Amino acid sequence: MTSTLIIYSTTDGQTKTICNTIASVISKINDVEVVSLDEANKLDLFKYDQLVIGASIRYGKHKPELYKFIDKNISTLESKKNAFFSVNVVARKPEKNTPSTNPYMQKFLSLSAWKPNALACLLGRLIILSISL
After folding, report:
1. Confidence of residue 120 (pLDDT cuts 50, 70, 90)
2. What is the pLDDT of residue 131?
3. What topology is assigned to 3-122 in CATH?
4. Considering the entire predicted model, what is its pTM?
């Protein structure tokens, strides 16, 4: 059976929720584990067949720890089947919801030496507050 590690970098918990949803689907056919980026730093990534990283945007940027993790583990990432997805509010716009049109994905690809096998842009939970005066 194939083993998949799903790693999340989240601020408000939406990326973790998305990772758990993905894991629930994958678990029907593969072994799967979901861990935070901090937890992933303590694991032996070589024991997994597939690696997926999901990361959220905060104030227009992915967390610096994401890039540090990728730099530290790039040879392992590239030796496995792999995927990356970015969770950002801009993905709500049809003209900016693909990897080739999403500015945060394009920024990630320009800043990272890692070129994932698969890419996706996802919208997290959008909360709209209404204030009555």
Report:
1. very high
2. 47
3. Rossmann fold (3.40.50)
4. 0.91
